[in-house]
Structures are given as structure tokens and as C-alpha cells.
UniProtKB/TrEMBL annotation, chain A:
This is sn-glycerol-3-phosphate transport system permease protein UgpA. Part of the ABC transporter complex UgpBAEC involved in sn-glycerol-3-phosphate (G3P) import. Probably responsible for the translocation of the substrate across the membrane. Its main location: membrane. The gene is ugpA. PROSITE patterns: ABC_TM1. One of its GO terms (biological process) is transmembrane transport.
UniProtKB/TrEMBL annotation, chain B:
One of its GO terms (molecular function) is ATP binding. It is found in: Cell inner membrane. This is sn-glycerol 3-phosphate transport system ATP-binding protein. It comes from Sinorhizobium americanum. One of its GO terms (biological process) is glycerol-3-phosphate transmembrane transport. The gene is ugpC.
């Protein structure tokens, strides 16, 4: 790293100040508020709050609906990450073979990423809403009783598809770049060595894509945990019967709808811990089995 | 083991760029053929067409009795050594060697046996369980060779395999490749732009230029009787001097019998065939007066870069460390049998 020396002593601080201010206002302050709130309990009228120690945490962890929400989150995240990465990889390998118009395909495929989560949710809702959705109508006409408003599994499928669809473009871009970074001579050597199509993919291409896949796994898990609030909020609102209430959605629901601030704050603190642990785990154990170069 | 036969093979890119303009070549079983030529002459393309990595626009390529035009690389039973080695970075050396055999469902014991044998002959048994990135350039080169050998293919294809090595290692590997090929007796096609590598390795050399074969022959044939002025200047280092007969002035003279051949346009003399005049006045020799521009000492000999009074450059060799200085004027001679004559199109007369 190059060492840069500023002649002016204050200038460097002014240059980094905007970022620092943003981080403090939008991260450290709310996070510290959450930590503070998580050990407080409001009285029924919301006028006073008192210190209760870890009571909020023990209440949350003993709560059946919280554990249900944890299970929903795990299923939702795993399915979303697998679906979006799987489809992205499929599209990327297909685009890698296209010789002409590659930029055109890539431009089209990146568009969904520019759509806001809530808007993406609405798009899918319009298509699959049992009352007015075109696809819902087609499904029903073909004898499939489709109703995400009543059937929890249907609701889960709907939000997984919507969340995965939005993330495919992002994953696609990275997979395309990863595929292009594989030296062509390696693929040719494998071709001469008698490995065709799928076998070549699984024994040569996929292992060499491992760093990209690993990176995307981290990004997609974090995405499914946090950035899908808008989709869930617009499509299912956590229902039916809390079948799609993820941890993040429950934090919102308990805190801002039911105004149980202490419980909500305790949940966000647990969520923070989960994400820190998850990321640490991925870097420590998954990365070890990833081959770089 | 197999012959490789090319019949009027052509390659056109995008409908109008001709990379290979009709190459016919018969490679005998067990022969070591070197394709050599300047960059962009189509030598690599031709090799890749034999391998099946490039399609053939027209013509026919046969390995043994089989026409392989439409066969996948895997079905051609050839092995290739790439310039950048193309070792699979996520596999150990052992897995790299075994990969091609596993894909062909070779029995496990047979794979073990072949790897052990190849590893021993290439002296790579010490690092069979390492990954390619833990190896030096020379070791990677050996592994790449090993991967080709264990397959026991009918032909080896080499695409400039030594160009990423340093000079000393290159000479050593060159000798080893030659010995290995002799021992195995496998038909080999080797691509290089280095004429020295080409001369020392080849049973027969194929000089390519602009997608066409200039000349095919043993290294000695090409050196002693180059069929075209291109081959004459490409083979040999420093390259052959070419003097234009047209408008030749009084600053050099050649045997009349030689210059008077009909159509003679270029006179070629290798630097090593020119010597300093020794005072004899034989009329049938090539004679010239040279002003010295530079002297290159390369150890046992020196190359003198000079120019004739008309400005034409002339390079010649002197043995040992010469006392020739810059701007000296010297008389040089060459014997008539060492002269080469070419016509205006560069063809040998």
C-alpha cells in the first residue's frame, strides 16, 4: 500500500468525515440504541421504561413464535441462495457460450437488480395473487389449487422466487466474470483429456469457480436475511399465520406494529450476533476448502 | 503410434481471413516434426486443428487411417502440452496425471502403474501430492509432459512448451524432450518460433509463412539448401545475408558463372561462410569490401556487422576474439559452393 502524506493536517479528516458521519448516524447509533433497548422494558402506557437485565432475551428465546420465525428464516435463506445462485450459474454458463451479443444479454440480465425489493415483490404479487394474478389463474385452470394467501408453503414459494429473481442478476455478473477468468487452455486440456460437457463442468469449471461461489454464498445469505424485508412486506406481510415471518420481519412486526420495543430490540441484537457468527463461520470453514489460483 | 496426414487443409476466420491457405503434409509414424515460423504464420492454428481445438474449413486431417475432421479432441487419442502448461490448479500432481485416464475408465491399478512409471522417468515422484502452484516452472513443465505421457496417446502435440522457461532450463528440457520422444517412439508435432529449438529437436522441419508451407525437410537440408529466401533468412543465426544483384555496384563481385544464371535476383551467403581475404586472388570467389559498423563477441567467435560502400549490410563471422575495430575497412571472401541464388520471387535457382 502506498503511503500518502497530506501536507494539511485537517484535510484528511474532512475527506473521510462524510462516510464516518453516515456510519455513525445510520449504524452505530441505531445499534447502540438497540443494545440499550434490549435490556429495558416499557410500561403498558409507553411512558416509562425500566432496566430488566436479560429478561427480554430469555422471553424471546422461550417464545415458540420466535423459534418458528428462526426456522422460516433458515428455510427461506437456504432456498433463496440455492435458487438464485443455481439459476445464475446456469445462465452464466449459457451466456459464456454466446459469441455474439454477449453484452446485450448481460445488460438485459442485470436489469432485475435495479428494481427495488418492494417493487419486485409487487411484480410477483400481481402475477401470482390468487384474486387477480394471471399466473395464479393459469395455475388454477390447470387444476393446481394455488393460494398463497391461505397456504403457507405457497406463500413461501412465492417470496423465495421473488427474492431469488432479484438476486439472479447480481450472481450472474459475478459468475460470468468468474467463468471468463478461467484460462481457456484449461478447458481445452480437459477436452483433450476426454472430459465432456457436464463432467468437465463439475470436475474443472465448478472447482475453479469456488472462490466466486463462496463469495456469493456470503452475499446471498446476508441478502436473504436482511434485504428481503421489502419483498416479504409487500407480498405476504409475514403471513399466512406467520408462515413467512422471517427474523427481520418479526423485529419490525413486534417493534413497530405491536410496539413491544424491548423484545424487538433483543431480537435485533440476536440477529446481529447470528450474522457475525455466520460470516465468521463461512470465512473460517468454507473458505478453507476453496482453491484460490 | 500413428501417422498424421494433412491434405490441402485450410482455415478461414470470419469468411475472409485466411489463417491456413492449404497445407499438405505426411508425418510418418514415430517422427518428430517441428512447425516453425514467425508469429502469425499459422503454426499454432495448424497444431490446434490437428488437436481438434479449431475447426477445419476445408481439407482433410487423418490420424492413422481415421479421418478426424469431425471428431472431438477426446476421440482423437492425442495428448497436448500447452505453452502455459494448463495444469488443473485445484488438483494435486497425481490427480492431474490421473484425470485423463479416469475419464477413459482406465482401471485403478493401471492408472497407478502408469503414473509411477511416468513420474519416475520425469523425476517428479517427489512432489506427486503437491498442487501445481507449489511447483517451479521447470517442475510444472515436467508435470505437463507427464500428463501427456501417462495417456499413452498415438501422438504428442507441443504448443511452444518451453517458451515460459529461462534459457538454461530451456536447453535442458529440450534435450530431455528429444530423449523422451526417442525412447517412446511416439509421433510428435512441436510448434515453436525459436529456430534453434526447431533445428535441434526436429527429425523434419516444416517452415510456415503466411499460412503456407515454405519448405519441409531435415534441419540440415533446410540449412544447406533453403528452397526460398524466406527459409534462408529464417533458419540460421545470425540470418543469411541477401544481396540484390540488380544494380550491384563495384563494391562486391561474385563468380560470373553464378551471377549470370538467368533470373538471378538475390545472392545469399551465410555469415559463417564469409571469411577475411587471405591475399589469394582466385577469381571464382565472392569478394567484397566492408566497412565495420559493430562487432558482437559471443564467446568462441565474433559476428561483424558491416556495410558495403553501397550501404547494403553484411554480417560475417570471425573465429576467436578479433582485433577488428569500428570503421575498419576489410576485404572479405566466400567460396562459390557456399553461395545461394534466388530469383525475384525468392525461389532457389
Amino acid at each position: 500500500m502506498q503511503r500518502v502524506v497530506f501536507p494539511n493536517k485537517i484535510l484528511p479528516y474532512i475527506l473521510v468525515a462524510p462516510q464516518i458521519v453516515l456510519t455513525i448516524v445510520f449504524f452505530f447509533w441505531p445499534a447502540s440504541q438497540a443494545l440499550y433497548q434490549s435490556v429495558m422494558r416499557e410500561n403498558p402506557f409507553g411512558l416509562k421504561s425500566g432496566f430488566v437485565g436479560l429478561a427480554n432475551f430469555s422471553a424471546v428465546l422461550a417464545d415458540g413464535s420466535y423459534l418458528n420465525s428462526l426456522q422460516v428464516t433458515v428455510i427461506f435463506s437456504v432456498l433463496t441462495a440455492l435458487l438464485s445462485m443455481g439459476l445464475a450459474l446456469l445462465l452464466a454458463t449459457a451466456a459464456d457460450r454466446v459469441v455474439r451479443g454477449q453484452t446485450f444479454y448481460r445488460t438485459l440480465l442485470i436489469w432485475p437488480y435495479a428494481v427495488a425489493p418492494a417493487v419486485a415483490g409487487m411484480l410477483w404479487l400481481f402475477m401470482f395473487n390468487p384474486a387477480m394474478g394471471t399466473f395464479a389463474y393459469i395455475l388454477r385452470r390447470n387444476g393446481f389449487y394455488w393460494d398463497p394467501l391461505l397456504n403457507g408453503n405457497h406463500a413461501m414459494v412465492l417470496i423465495v422466487v421473488a427474492a431469488a429473481w432479484k438476486q439472479i442478476s447480481y450472481n450472474f455478473l459475478f459468475f460470468v466474470a468468474g467463468l471468463q477468468a478461467i484460462p481457456k487452455s484449461l478447458i481445452e486440456a480437459a477436452a483433450i483429456d476426454g472430459a465432456r460437457g457436464t463432467r468437465r463442468f463439475w470436475t474443472i469449471v465448478f472447482p475453479l469457480l469456488a472462490p466466486t461461489t463462496f463469495f456469493l454464498l456470503v452475499v446471498n445469505t446476508v441478502y436473504a436475511f436482511f434485504d428481503t424485508f421489502g419483498i416479504i412486506h409487500s407480498v405476504t406481510g409475514g403471513g399466512p399465520a406467520k408462515a413467512t415471518e422471517t427474523l427481520v420481519y418479526k423485529v419490525y412486526n413486534d417493534g413497530f406494529v405491536n410496539l413491544n420495543l424491548g423484545s424487538s430490540a433483543a431480537q435485533s441484537v440476536i440477529l446481529m450476533a447470528i450474522v457475525v457468527a455466520l460470516t465468521a463461520f463461512q470465512f473460517r470453514f468454507v473458505e478453507r476448502r476453496v482453491h484460490y489460483g | 503410434m500413428a501417422t498424421i496426414t494433412l491434405k490441402d487443409v485450410k482455415k478461414t476466420y470470419g469468411g475472409n481471413v485466411d489463417a491456413i491457405r492449404g497445407v499438405s503434409l505426411a508425418i510418418a509414424d514415430g517422427e518428430f516434426i517441428v512447425l516453425v515460423g514467425p508469429s502469425g504464420c499459422g503454426k499454432s492454428t495448424l497444431l490446434r486443428m490437428i488437436a481438434g481445438l479449431e475447426s477445419i474449413t476445408s481439407g482433410e486431417i487423418a490420424i492413422g487411417d481415421r479421418v478426424v475432421n469431425r471428431l472431438e479432441p477426446a476421440e482423437r487419442d492425442i495428448a497436448m502440452v500447452f505453452q502455459n502448461y494448463a495444469l488443473y490448479p485445484h488438483m494435486t500432481v497425481r490427480q492431474n496425471l490421473a484425470y485423463g485416464l479416469k475419464n477413459r475408465n482406465t482401471p485403478k491399478e493401471e492408472i497407478e502403474r502408469r503414473i509411477a512409471k511416468a513420474a519416475k522417468s520425469l523425476e517428479i515422484d517427489a512432489f506427486l501430492d503437491r498442487k501445481p502452484r507449489q511447483l517451479s516452472g521447470g517442475q510444472r513443465q515436467r508435470v505437463a509432459m507427464g500428463r501427456a505421457i501417462v495417456r499413452e496417446p498415438v501422438a504428442f502435440l507441443f504448443d511452444e512448451p518451453l517458451s515460459n522457461l529461462d534459457a538454461k532450463l530451456r536447453v535442458q528440457m529440450r534435450v530431455e524432450i528429444k530423449q523422451l520422444q526417442r525412447a517412446l517412439g511416439t509421433t510428435s508435432v512441436y510448434v515453436t518460433h525459436d529456430q534453434l529449438e526447431a533445428m535441434t529437436l526436429a527429425d523434419r522441419l516444416v517452415v510456415l509463412n503466411g499460412g503456407r508451407i515454405e519448405q519441409v525437410g531435415t534441419p540440415i537440408e533446410l540449412y544447406e539448401k533453403p528452397e526460398t529466401s524466406f527459409v534462408a533468412t529464417f533458419i540460421g543465426s545470425p540470418s543469411m545475408n541477401l544481396l540484390e544483384i540488380e544494380g550491384a555496384s563495384s563494391d562486391w563481385s561474385a563468380p560470373p558463372a553464378f551471377v549470370n544464371q538467368p533470373g538471378t535476383a538475390l545472392l545469399g551467403i551465410r555469415p559463417e561462410d564469409i571469411g577475411l581475404a587471405d591475399g589469394s586472388t582466385d577469381n571464382d570467389r565472392f569478394r567484397a569490401r566492408v566497412r565495420v559498423g559493430a562487432v558482437e563477441l559471443v564467446g568462441a567467435e565474433s559476428y561483424v556487422h558491416g556495410s558495403l560502400t553501397s550501404g547494403q549490410p553484411l554480417v560475417f563471422r570471425v573465429a576467436g576474439r578479433s582485433r577488428i575495430g569500428i570503421d575498419d575497412e576489410l576485404d572479405v571472401v566466400a567460396r562459390p559452393e557456399s553461395l545461394h541464388a534466388f530469383d525475384a520471387a525468392g525461389r532457389r535457382l
